[in-house]
Automatic annotation (TrEMBL):
It comes from Kalanchoe fedtschenkoi (Lavender scallops). One of its GO terms (cellular component) is mitochondrion. It comes from the Eukaryota. Belongs to the PET191 family. InterPro entries: Cyt_c_oxidase_assmbl_Pet191. Signal peptide: none annotated. This is Cytochrome c oxidase assembly factor 5.
Length: 71
């Protein structure tokens, strides 16, 4: 995992670990990350989108030269 996205991944796991999807339903982080807003908080959805954009930026050759935006 690239260092630029590692912090986002850790924050996403921390956010998902506090949701009812993981706590009560005992589902995996991967299953809960794919859920929509009612199951997980909007904060986790925002972190998921930001992490996705970070990982996508690593594959874009223009972004690889300039570096990921933000964070």
């Amino acid at each position: 995992m690239a260092k630029s996205c590692k912090g986002l991944a850790l924050e996403l796991v921390k956010c998902l670990s506090e949701t009812d999807c993981v706590k009560i339903e005992n589902r995996s982080f991967r299953d809960c990350a794919g859920e929509k807003v009612p199951c997980i908080s909007s904060e986790c959805v925002g972190l998921r989108e930001t992490y996705f954009n970070c990982k996508r930026g690593q594959l874009d050759m223009r972004a690889r030269i300039r570096g990921n935006k933000g964070y």
